[in-house]
Structures are given as structure tokens and as C-alpha cells.
Write a structure and sequence with these properties.
By secondary structure, the chain is an alpha+beta fold. The chain contains four helices and five strands; from the N terminus they run E-H-E-E-H-E-E-H-H.
Amino acid sequence: MVLYFAYGSNLLLSQIRERINNSNLNPSYIAFVPNSKLIFSRESIKQKGGVASYENCEGNRLWGAVFELTDDEKSKLDSKEGVKRLSAKEYEDTKIEVTKINETKIWVTTYVANKTGAYLPSQYYMDIIIRGAIDCSLPNYYIEELKHITTNGVQ
């Protein structure tokens, strides 16, 4: 079993379920990365703008959902995120400590985008993240913060 922390488009349950071929997947925990914030540091043609990553930011919380994946499901997700592509990895798989709502700390794996700059996400992509945050019952204040992220306007 692999504990995977989703904070971007993989929060959308229909997307992550399709990517790993498990229609019954649901979050096991809601958690946050302390002193971190959502950024868009790599451009994606598919997503029509910047895609999610995170960086240190004192006092902020990056909220997300923790999913329990089998090794096979994690491998499928790695493939979708471009982790295994040797020539141009899109995301790095990394281990981080997150804090659950009950303040328990756990180690999880997550993806961090290979940074190539600073980009605005498309409205299309932000809508996916927002719908996912709602799917996973992230805190309302955080969902409101997501709704106020400046986009490039592309639907």
C-alpha cells in the first residue's frame, strides 16, 4: 500500500479513479502540508496553462487528500504524471510529511512539478482542481482561496 497525497487535479475523484482504474477509490484522509502554497511552475499544453506544484510559504497550508493506493495503482498514476519518462520527467515522485485534520503527522508520497517558470493556470484546469477540492471535502476557506486564483482565462 502507498499513501498518496493529491493537491492538484488528482483531487477530482472521476479523474484519479479513471487514471488508476478503480471506480471505488475515495480519500482516506484530508491533510495539509504546513508552510506551503499551491503554485503553477510548469506549463502544460493539455491543461492549457500552468499545472500544480507547491513551494514553501510560511504560515500557509496546502490542503489535499490522502489516498491508499496499491503498488499497481501507484505505477499507473506515475505513468500518467510522466514520472517514468526518462527524457523529460514532468513530475518527480517525492516523500513528504503531511498533517491530518486531527494533527497526526504521516509520511506520504506526492508529485512535485519540475519547475520551468511561473505560469497562470487555465480556468479549465482550476475548475478541475476546485471540483476535486469539493469532491474531497477540503476546508471551505481553502476552496474559496482556490476560486480566487488568477487564471489565464482559457476555458
